[in-house]
Specification:
Distance between the termini: 18 Å
Order of helices and strands: HHEEHEHEHEHEHEHEHEEHH
Structural class: alpha/beta
Helix content: 40-55%
Bound molecules: zinc ion
Length: 314
């Protein structure tokens, strides 16, 4: 109990709480600007999550604290979607709508998860089923059944588990889908042509072989992509490539540079509703290399400050 209380007051925990609260208030402050800049259209929206669980805050690493949506919050979000007439579509339906083969539907939504955390199956899937939604998870093939502790600012092994083959087979049997998130989650923009193709093609073939389903969609790790990556994705057999750039997908967006709406720990219910209305779509500039580099440097700095204070338990 004492160690639990001590851990709650650790600088890392306080800093994470501060960061999330700052993000919440920034989002509230940006709403008026977003309402002015909002483009009212029926283009297709893709939601993207990482984690859904009810782990205690101090049980998670710095990154997971910010990318986790609490189980109860997730259920409220699904309730909102159901109440407002949204329906989840499959990747095939989504692609048909993009190409115009199927009529676009303003209430069609694609729900996606990146990285393949075990909580997607254990916590999110039962809730998705309860509200009649399906989702797609993008998997890192070399990490199936593993743990996120190979990544910086990760979790302790028991809290960072990724789905194993058995869970994924059940995930697919329940009507959900899978896509690639590469073999090892590299920054694709830094790879030479051969390595780029290898990361994308090998992961597709692995998923198709293990799970016996077609894999034609990829989510670029960290959203890092450029024209070269998009061309390589096409050459590797993908017809849909998902970025982390915010916005919707209409005729002006390439199938290999699809936009998504992130949902994370700082998305309060009202912010989630505003996101669905396109109030945050204009923030796509955050995907620029300069912005991402600055954020990475800030996060690394925070990690350096916090680690010595947390001691050897990390
Ligand atoms: Zn990822």
């Amino acid at each position: 109990m004492n160690s639990e209380l001590n851990s709650i007051s650790q600088p890392g925990i306080l800093l994470s709480r501060a960061r999330i609260n700052i993000k919440i208030w920034l989002k509230y402050l940006l709403i008026p600007i977003g309402i002015l800049l909002r483009q009212n259209n029926d283009d297709l929206r893709v939601l993207f999550y990482h984690r859904v669980n009810s782990h205690l805050f101090h049980e998670l690493g710095m990154v997971s604290r910010e990318i986790t949506v609490h189980e109860k919050t997730f259920e409220r979000q699904l309730t909102y979607l159901a109440k407002h007439g949204y329906r989840s579509v499959t990747l095939v339906e989504f692609e048909r709508m993009l190409s115009g083969e199927q009529k676009q539907d303003s209430k069609a939504i694609l729900i996606t998860f990146d990285d393949g955390y075990a909580d997607n199956f254990e916590v999110a899937a039962p809730l998705l089923a309860k509200y009649g939604f399906t989702a797609t998870v993008f998997l890192v093939t070399e990490m199936i059944g593993g743990c996120n502790n190979v990544w910086p600012m990760s979790d302790q092994p028991q809290f960072g588990r990724l789905m194993d083959e058995e869970a994924l087979k059940k995930w697919i049997a329940e009507g959900h889908e899978i896509g690639s998130h590469t073999c090892s989650h590299p920054d694709l923009t830094t790879l030479d042509k051969d390595k780029l193709i290898e990361q994308m093609r090998a992961s597709r073939l692995t998923l198709e072989k293990i799970f016996g389903v077609s894999c034609k969609s990829i989510a670029y790790p960290g959203g890092a992509m450029n024209d070269r990556v998009a061309i390589a994705a096409k050459e590797s057999g993908y017809t849909l490539g998902f970025t982390t750039r915010s916005g919707t997908n209409g005729k002006n967006v390439s199938n290999l540079k699809l936009r998504r709406t992130e949902v994370s720990a700082s998305d309060r219910d009202f912010i989630f509703a505003m996101k669905l209305k396109g109030v945050f779509d204009w923030l796509g500039f955050r995907e620029s290399k300069i912005y991402k580099k600055a954020i990475f440097q800030i996060n690394t700095l925070f990690d350096r400050i916090i680690k010595p204070a947390q001691g050897p338990s990390r």
